[in-house]
Amino acid sequence: MFQELFTPSVQHSLDLVGIFVFAISGALLAVRKNFDVFGIAVLAEVTALGGGLLRDLIIGAVPPAAFTDLGYFTTPLIAAALVFFLHPEVERIQGAVNAFDAAGLGLFCVTGTTKAYEYGLGLTASAALGLATAVGGGVLRDVLANEVPSLLRWDRDLYAVPAIVGASMVALCIRFDALNAVTSGIAVVTAFVLRLLAMRFHWRAPRAWHRSSAKAEGESESST
């Protein structure tokens, strides 16, 4: 099934593009945290490959693709070197980086779900691993950088939700035997567009009603 969606060369190229952009985001955070060159490389590798590694280890696809394909391993290093030498220029095109990051999110939530199902997981578990593939690297990046993971913060634009939608669409297509290159492409585009809209209009997930922090925030605002 997985091989039928795209030709191997197309799939490999898409993977490398997604890995490269995820690695850029990890390397940029390392620069902002004042990490040295080794720290920049580590954060780039973890961000780019962490989600896929987690998925492959859970489903038993070992050794993971990151260790059997040299391109997967070296692409984050290239991204890290680019940021190390040209990070001011890369920062200036942050909007483009975010757009490609959204595309990688859409791609990886779809391919992650499909691969998990191929290895015998149920639809719900496959969708969960599709989500983990898309956002796992970012979570590991934030933890290593000593930050609260972005997808858990209420003040950040929606990130996990678009991946959940894309992975769920793939699971439903599998359930009704409708998964093909067209429907998988629609799922990728849906997650991609939702992420772009979330960044454009600053969509955020709701917080708990009547939380005590809300009262404290209101008192703080009234006192200023």
UniProtKB/TrEMBL annotation:
Residues 14-87, 99-173 form the Glycine transporter domain. It is a multi-pass membrane protein. The chain crosses the membrane at residues 12-31, 38-58, 70-87, 123-144, 178-198. The keyword GTP-binding does not apply. It is found in: Cell membrane. Pfam families: Gly_transporter (PF03458). Its main location: membrane. Keywords: Cell membrane, Membrane, Transmembrane, Transmembrane helix. Belongs to the UPF0126 family. PANTHER family: INNER MEMBRANE PROTEIN, UPF0126 INNER MEMBRANE PROTEIN YADS-RELATED. This is UPF0126 membrane protein.
